[in-house]
Each structure stands twice: as structure tokens, then as C-alpha cells.
Amino acid sequence: MRSNGSRFNGAAMDSAAKHKLTKLLSCPVDWEQETGLGIFSYEPLEWDWHAAFAAQAVSGQELWLIERLIRYGNLLELDEDDEELPQLMKNIELRLPYAIEAYKKRAGRLAGLTFIRPSEHGKHFVLNANRKEVILQSRGGPSLFFKNYFSDDLKVEFWLWFLGFFDFIDSDESYRITVSGEGDDYSRARVWNDFMCEHQRRVCADVAGVIGAVDGSETSFICFDIHLDTKAVHAYPISGDEASAIMDGEIETANFLRGC
């Protein structure tokens, strides 16, 4: 084994093999495209892919490669190969479909979410109402948005919240501690595990700017009601107290909507 920490010995790995390994071991969901955020850190979602593949892997080499892929984005900088590489490729190709299927039931459940515009949902938006009218109508009725946010804007707001809320998941160890619920971030771990297992989950964020009204008062808090079976997400303004109760006091700020 070479001193740079590689798990491989022998002749140099050719470019075609590096590209094939990168493609095989990459997370099956393109989170850059899915979230609309482009180049960003998706480690919480990628470490779940590592866990899904680990359940199928037959050697530490495979997991070492995925870890490098998560940290560096590709395997093109690998200098080494191994005479057992052909068999390693076969092992990966045989087990890959099972890992992908498992991932669809884990973090992959969050792929394909549809964010419903307030006007399409109907309950939390009043057409052609000015700010004062919205505040008045929110008294004794449902909370109301001031603006009819676009679906893509709601999607970006949610994913900025998600990746900020779970940014402590940055390694296999922190992922495993989160799943077990034994770490210091118990409340956040519970939200993660709900996303992995439950049919529905509500989460809240502080937009750091007024977005609507609740019971006659302006609010900067938003709630996303996520139905994981149908992939439908509808959002609505919520009071700070109710948001804090839903999130066990763990409120993350994601202020994309403030500029919309």
C-alpha cells in the first residue's frame, strides 16, 4: 500500500477506469439538479448513499472509493490501480441495483418533491389583497402569504434550510451517530429519521424577513408540510411559537425568499 493512503497497489489506473468508477459509485440522485442550487455541498444526502451502498459492499475498497468521491467529487486524481480491479468492478455492478433501490427508500425519498404555489393550494393566499387586507383576513382564519411565491423559489428555500439544518452530517461517523439518535443533535436527528421513515413531516424555517400574517400579526416563519408518499409539499406562514414547537426549538434561518 502506498503512503498516500490508497487501498490499491500495482499499475496506474487508466482514465476510462476512473470515469467508470466515478459513474458507478456516484450518488444515484443528481442533487445539484434536484435542488436547483447548483454547485453546493450535499454531504448529508451523499453520506446516506454511502450507508446504502455499505450494506451491499463486499470490501473496504468500495467504501474507500465512495468516501473519496464524496470528498473530492470524482476519482480522476487516483494514481493507483489493483490487479483485482476487474473483479471489484464486477462486485460493484452486481450490487449497485440493490444499493440504489435501498437509497430510494432512504434519502432518495426526497427526490422529486413538488412545491405547490400558494395560489394553487388556495388556503393560504388571497388574490388581489393588499398587505393590510391580508393581515386583517388572517385574524381567526388560516395564515396568509403576502406574495404568491413561485414553486422553484419555495424549493430553493426548502433545500437551503435542509442543507443548513443537517450540515453537521459531514462524515460516515456523524451520519451513523445521527441515524442512531445518540449524538448531541438529537432533535435534528429525529427530523432526519422522520424524513427517512415517515409518510409526512412538517419543518419550519425563519426567512429573516416578513412573508405573511398569522392571527393578525406579521411573521417571518414558514412551514413546509411534506407528504413523502405523494411528493407534494405545500408551505404556509406560521407563528414563531408554533414553529419552535414543531422543531423542538431548533430553528434554522434560510433567507432566500426574503429577496423574492
Give the mean pLDDT: 88
Major β-sheet annotation: 5 strands, mixed
Distance between the termini: 53 Å
Low-confidence stretches: 1-11
Strand content: 5-15%
The tally of strands reads 8
Q: Tell me the number of structural domains.
A: 2
Specify the number of helices: 11
Elements, N to C (H/E): HHHHHEHHEHHHEEEEEHE
Helix content: 40-55%
Overall geometric form: elongated
Query: How would you write the strand order of the largest sheet?
Result: 1-7-6-3-8
What is the radius of gyration computed over CA atoms, rounded to a whole number of angstroms? Answer: 22 Å
- Look at the helices and sheets and give the structural class: alpha/beta
Description:
The protein is α/β, with parallel strands linked by helices and 260 residues long. The chain folds into 2 domains: 15-110, no CATH class; 114-259, no CATH class. The chain is 44% helix and 13% strand. It is built from 11 helices and 8 strands. It has helices at residues 15-25, 31-35, 43-54, 60-72, 85-104, 118-121, 131-137, 151-165, 172-180, 186-197, 240-246; strands at residues 114-116, 144-145, 200-206, 212-214, 217-219, 221-227, 232-238, 252-253. The protein has a 5-stranded mixed sheet with strand order 1-7-6-3-8. The protein has a 3-stranded antiparallel sheet with strand order 2-4-5, covered by helices on one side. Helix 3 (43-54) packs antiparallel against helix 4 and helix 3 packs across helix 5 (85-104). The chain starts with 14 loop residues before the first helix and ends in a 7-residue tail after the last strand. The relative contact order is 0.14. Residues 1-11 have low confidence and may be disordered.
